[in-house]
Design goal:
mainly beta; 2 domains; 8-stranded mixed β-sheet; 4-stranded antiparallel β-sheet; 5 helices; globular; binds zinc ion
């Protein structure tokens, strides 16, 4: 675990003078932020760029291009293969704010669980569960209009189906610009960035997935794979790097798309702050404003954005204008 030097120099509280670039003492503040990332995650040199935030504010942003440093061994498992498979051989599923082991027993009992007899994801003769087992199957089963042939499938995509590493460029405001009204977290651009280069994504479209009688389980870390974003988190499962904040408050686990830090749900004493706002944020000395992530079962890592968001981009050379919807990329609904 890394330790933030002195009080955490929030990327968001970075010295105001950063707008002039990496000059003199400011570079130390940027370096301290960069140091929170795992080795090998940041690709190329972070840059200060002009950006337009979601509310139209033109300001300066830090542009960081990252790739995941995880291997397939760090991910999964997701779908059980047989109704006899236990929780160690399966991931999790979320329902009404609670997490469930998506194990063989869960799959066996889906019709009862959802009160819908059309659930039949396994072969009653031998208990084998239907699982997508190729790139084509993953594509067909994970798209918003699920191919009818993949109804009643457990959907599991692998990073090995992807041709190359996914690079994502995050363009984050150096100085968060608070909004009059917090904005909903939507599928565009995600929620934020973990220090292993993995995106904290918007809530998974569970209802759309269930409508096709499919499951797309998350691993115990809260992550799964789609062919656009690669491996991404829909929950903070405590698997990504934590940076201890020296004031004994909750550990820092990432940066939200609006530039504020994200911290673990509970502080060093295991308790959740009692003064969180609707976005799950609050202000403390040292950390300033920051979000505490939610329970893994919530399917809502933070509640909303208090400040205008920047961008997550597929193309590092694209200019971030988050006020244009199409510029806030995210996986298509259904994934
Ligand atoms: Zn806090
Ligand atoms: Zn997803």
């Amino acid at each position: 675990m890394k330790i933030a030097n002195a009080l955490f120099v929030s990327p968001l509280l970075l010295a105001a003078s950063l707008t002039s670039g990496f000059a003199h003492e400011d570079s130390a503040a940027v370096d301290s932020m960069i140091a929170m990332f795992d080795d090998g995650v940041i690709v190329g040199d972070p840059k200060i760029v002009d950006c337009t935030l979601s509310g139209g504010t033109k300001t300066s942003c830090l542009s960081i291009t990252v790739k995941s440093n995880l291997t397939e061994n760090d991910m999964g498992p997701w779908c059980p293969r047989n109704i006899s498979d236990g929780p160690d051989e399966a991931g999790i599923w979320l329902h009404e704010g609670k997490r469930y082991d998506a194990d063989g027993e869960f799959v066996e009992n889906l019709a009862t669980f959802y009160g819908d007899p059309d659930w039949q994801m396994f072969d009653p003769a031998n208990g084998n569960i239907r699982v997508t087992d190729s790139k084509a199957a993953c594509e067909a089963a994970a798209r918003p209009d699920v191919d009818a042939a993949y109804n009643n499938y457990c959907v599991e995509c692998l990073t090995s189906y992807m041709d190359e590493d996914v690079l994502t460029t995050y363009v984050l405001p150096l100085h968060p610009v608070d909004q009059k009204t917090p904005s909903r977290v939507n599928g565009l651009g995600g929620i934020g960035l973990a220090f292993n280069g993995i995106k904290f994504d918007a809530p998974a479209p569970v209802d759309a997935i269930l409508a096709a009688h499919t499951l797309a389980p998350f691993d115990d870390c809260g992550g799964h794979v789609n062919l656009h974003a690669g491996y991404h988190y829909h929950a903070a499962g405590g698997c990504s790097p934590e940076v201890t904040s020296t004031n004994g408050h909750a550990a820092i686990i990432g940066i939200a798309l609006d530039g504020y830090p994200m911290t673990s749900r509970v502080d060093a004493n295991g308790s959740e702050p009692s003064d969180l706002d609707a976005c799950r944020g609050h202000f403390t000395d040292g950390l300033g404003y920051h979000y505490h992530v939610n329970e893994i079962g919530s399917n809502q890592t933070i509640g909303c954005f208090i400040a205008e968001t920047g961008c997550s981009l597929d193309d590092p050379d694209q200019i971030c204008d988050a006020s244009i919807i199409s510029n806030r990329r995210g996986p298509p609904p259904g994934e």
